[in-house]
Amino acid sequence: MLLLAAFAVDEQNRLFGKQDPHLFLGAASTYMVLAMIAIAGSFWRRPPLMVQAHLQLLADLAALTVMINASGGLTSSLNSLLIAAVAASGILLSLSSALLGAALGFFLLTGSWLVDRWQATQALAQAGRGTNDWLGLLSQIGYATDDWVRLGILGAVLFIAAGLTHTLAERARRGEALARQRTIELLEVAELNQGIIRHLQNGVVVVDAAGQIQLLNDTAQTLLDAPDAVPGLPLNELSPLLAQRLADWRLSNSLESPAFRPAEHRPELIPRFTRLSGRQAANILILLEDSDQVAERLQQIKLAALGRLTAGIAHEIRNPLAAISHAAQLLEEADDLNAHLRRLSRIIYDNVKRANRIIGDVLDLARRDRGKPERLALELWLDAFRQEFLRGLNGATPDWRHTVEPADLAVSFDPHQLRQVLWNLCANACQHGVKPGATPHLELCARLDSGRGRPILDVRDAGPGVAAEHISHLFEPFFTTRAKGTGLGLYLARELCEANRAHLQYLPSAGGGSCFRIAFAPASSLSEID
């Protein structure tokens, strides 16, 4: 289009098409049409790239050669366009195709120059100053030394342009391929890091200087009870307590921060803050650790040592206990034994049974089998458990009531271990959760927590509740307020819940009584069991 515009504007000087204006106009018009077709083919990506590149090179060489011939031949300034066309072909085509294009361009220029020399010979012959045969053509060629030099230089430039642009393009392609490979590797490493962070046992939260969340792993969402939290959310909207701890840490810059409870039904969390380095220096990394898990790990270490010790001496302890128990029974059966001695023998026998029960509970804790969760329809299962519990209960029959909403609510739990957990909770409610002189009252309420998608089961009584100073020690092993208790019941119940991906906790009630809540595994896990 530019060549046609220059041709139309400069009609007097004829910078382009001076030798044959009509030929130049036709060639330039045809060249413009071919260029438009090439643009459309590139847009539609048809035919394939290599076919298009070869066809466009042939069109460039043919059209430019005709226009060069119509504009004065080797002395025309359009020769630079021919060089540009060959150089551009070296970017897309292979080296052999690019060099072949340079050779073809050189031969077309040479042929065009020879045709021009032949026409000059014919013109001289008609003027009577030469012959119109081959000898005249050879003489014309022999005297055109300047044209030979121009042809040689132009041919050399064509080959150099093709080879140089191809080399540069290949280097650029190798660099691009290497950059793409490095990008893929970096993305894979980033995905690996994201996967590791996502599945860490500790919660990980990264916030920027403005207090907006940049990173939040799955554990942090679970601990903070915020399954829908996304990056970009302000920290004070996600957890005001955690935002306050962060603000306090920024002011004091202390290493330790007090624990906090994000929600009533969630365990206490221990936050740890640290500043990132490098380009992320303005961001702050927050590690959230479940205080219950920390305490549990410590207890596991203690209980592992205790279990090994108990397993080693259980046999030696039980043998003398068996002898003491047998002797106490024989003593109690003596005919001449008075009431005072009989009471002392009963004390001996009862304490031997208690010692045996403590040893048995500790050994059961050490040898506890791994749970095998099943899908349990809670309504039917609680009906069967109620009948079994009332038949095996020693003491007053409690006022029992249980509700399940919805009626088809199902949970994932090992049935034998769930029986052991509920038996312990209900037995404790009948023994401790009753006011003097009153009938024990048991209420089991099962429902689906819509906010978290977890089935929950509350075991409530109508007793005086747990003293405030005892709440923090409820689930510690060997903690008991009964003279004959072992202190392992609630601890074993929580351990069995944790083994089934559930959580057992005590919820104080303002209106009196106690409530133990079992938060079962999310309902989505039932599909895995099915």
Radius of gyration: 47 Å
Class inferred from helices and paired strands: alpha+beta
Give me the side-by-side strand order of the main sheet. Answer: 6-8-9-11-10
Q: What proportion of the residues is helical, as a percent range?
A: 55-70%
What is the H/E order? HHHHHHHEEHHHEEHHEHEEHEEHHEEH
Number of domains: 4
Structure characterization notes:
With 530 residues, the chain is an alpha+beta fold. It folds into 4 domains: 2-177, no CATH class; 201-293, Beta-Lactamase; 295-366, Orthogonal Bundle (Helix Hairpins), CATH 1.10.287; 374-529, Histidine kinase-like ATPase, C-terminal domain (Heat Shock Protein 90). The protein contains 17 helices and 11 strands. It has helices spanning 2-9, 21-44, 49-70, 79-92, 95-127, 134-143, 145-198, 218-223, 235-238, 240-252, 291-332, 339-366, 378-392, 415-432, 468-471, 489-499, 526-529, and strands spanning 203-207, 213-216, 269-275, 284-290, 374-377, 399-405, 410-413, 441-449, 454-461, 503-508, 514-519. A 5-stranded mixed beta sheet has the order 6-8-9-11-10. It has a 4-stranded antiparallel beta sheet with strand order 2-1-4-3. A two-stranded antiparallel ribbon has the order 5-7. A hairpin with an 8-residue loop joins strand 3 (269-275) and strand 4 (284-290). Helix 3 (49-70) runs parallel beside helix 5 and helix 5 (95-127) packs across helix 6 (134-143). It is rod-shaped and about 165 Å long. It starts with a helix and ends with a helix.
